[in-house]
Design a protein that fits this description.
Elements: H1 9-39, H2 51-86, E1 97-102, E2 107-112, E3 114-116, E4 132-134, E5 142-147, E6 151-152, E7 161-162, E8 168-176, H3 179-185, H4 194-199, H5 223-228, H6 241-248, H7 263-308
Antiparallel strand pairs: 1-2, 3-4, 5-8, 6-7
The structure holds 2-acetamido-2-deoxy-beta-D-glucopyranose (NAG) (7 copies).
């Protein structure tokens, strides 16, 4: 166990950087894995689709791949944290819980870590305004990391207290119950600043990050946000419709042609309709007239004998 107190950056830094490396590796590994899986997929269509539909489909597929990749990584990370938290594992750094030997009862018992919430600079730890975050309740309690001369926890105090003022604060870095949870809530602010890197003893050979370089991530972006984006600045996708079409090898091609009718077209249609109607009626009407006349004559012919039926018998 190190001689630094639980609030000291020097205690947790090593583990936190290991966690950061692990998060990067996990992101890179997951992306390459999912990309290989994605590229092994085949796009099946019963008919060759148009360029627009093809491109829209590709964009949708890429988007789906991205979201599932991100969701899977987050899910696994949360699962592992939850398992660690609920198993009550004791960090070797003594930050989330530790054994205490009580001389009065000559017995060991477990004490859980606690951290002051948000008021990093306050000098009066006994102020009633302090709120505490306890590692037994949640694993994401944090406190501003720095070089503290000394920090302590009295027998009755709930949280670790810094002996203030600290030698210096490491901007953006947080310490807490577990290196994983505090690293996710930290930002990489210090790594944009040479004088900050000097303060924490990072070699001159390491060039600081460039804060003015175009990036979707700000200086104050948390590691959690970086990780949720899998440390990816931009995703680029490209598709080749020509190659899709050639691979699809359609056997037949047909198209329909739609056009708005114009005035001349409408007039032609109307006239030809009238002409056609005239011809058809010219044939049909005489036939109809003949038929009706025939019907009338037949009716009259039938009526004649009843009239001639004379009751006088002549
Ligand atoms: C893929 O690229 C197209 C154009 O290049 C872009 O409009 C689309 O948003 C990109 N899709 C994804 C998921 O990045
Ligand atoms: C506690 O907070 C109240 C209101 O926010 C303030 O008036 C008071 O001075 C604070 N006490 C201490 C000891 O800081
Ligand atoms: C800490 O964890 C609790 C639940 O365990 C959650 O509600 C809260 O939002 C978390 N806080 C941060 C800063 O992640
Ligand atoms: C760089 O870090 C030093 C030491 O932490 C700090 O005093 C200074 O304000 C920082 N500069 C910028 C531009 O953030
Ligand atoms: C930081 O990025 C900006 C914009 O890309 C560039 O002009 C500048 O030279 C970079 N600075 C360093 C120190 O690399
Ligand atoms: C990060 O910095 C930008 C300005 O550089 C600011 O608008 C934003 O609110 C900050 N975000 C956080 C979470 O502090
Ligand atoms: C698409 O593929 C064809 C055939 O392989 C190739 O000739 C063409 O240059 C490619 N187009 C693009 C934009 O890559």
């Amino acid at each position: 166990m190190s001689g630094f107190s639980p609030l000291d950056f020097r205690l947790m830094a090593m583990s936190q950087f290991q966690i950061l490396t692990l998060l990067c590796q996990t992101a890179a590994w997951t992306i390459s894995n999912n990309l290989n899986q994605f590229l092994a997929q085949q796009m099946v269509t019963s008919q060759a689709v148009s360029r627009e539909v093809f491109e829209a489909q590709v964009v949708a597929l890429v988007e789906q791949m991205q979201t599932t990749t991100i969701a899977n990584v987050k899910y696994i990370d949360q699962l592992v944290s939850l398992i660690i938290f609920n198993s009550g594992l004791m960090s070797a750094l003594n930050t989330n819980s530790y054994f205490i030997y009580s001389t009065s009862s000559s017995n060991y018992y477990i004490t859980h870590g606690g951290y002051l919430v948000s008021n990093y600079i306050d000098t009066d730890p006994y102020s009633p305004n302090y709120t505490y975050c306890e590692c037994v309740v949640t694993s994401n309690c944090t406190y501003q990391a720095g070089y503290y001369r000394y920090s302590y926890r009295s027998f009755y105090a709930i949280a670790y207290m810094p002996y203030t003022p600290p030698m210096f604060i490491v901007p953006g870095m947080l310490v807490g119950c577990l290196p994983h949870d505090s690293m996710l809530q930290s930002t990489l602010e210090c790594f944009y600043n040479r004088s900050c890197l000097d303060l924490i003893g990072i070699s001159q050979a390491i060039t600081p990050l460039n804060a003015t370089a175009p990036s979707q991530f700000r200086v104050n972006t948390t590691v959690n946000t970086l990780f949720e984006q899998l440390f990816v600045e931009t995703w680029q996708n490209s598709s080749n419709f020509t190659r899709y079409y050639n691979a699809c090898h359609p056997e037949a091609c047909s198209y329909t042609y739609t056009q708005r009718g114009n005035f001349l077209y409408a007039m032609t249609m109307l006239l030809s309709l009238i002409g056609g109607l005239t011809t058809v009626l010219g044939i049909l009407v005489p036939l109809l007239v003949k038929f009706i006349c025939g019907l009338l004559i037949k009716c009259r012919g039938n009526a004649v004998p009843t009239i001639e039926n004379d009751p006088a018998g002549r």
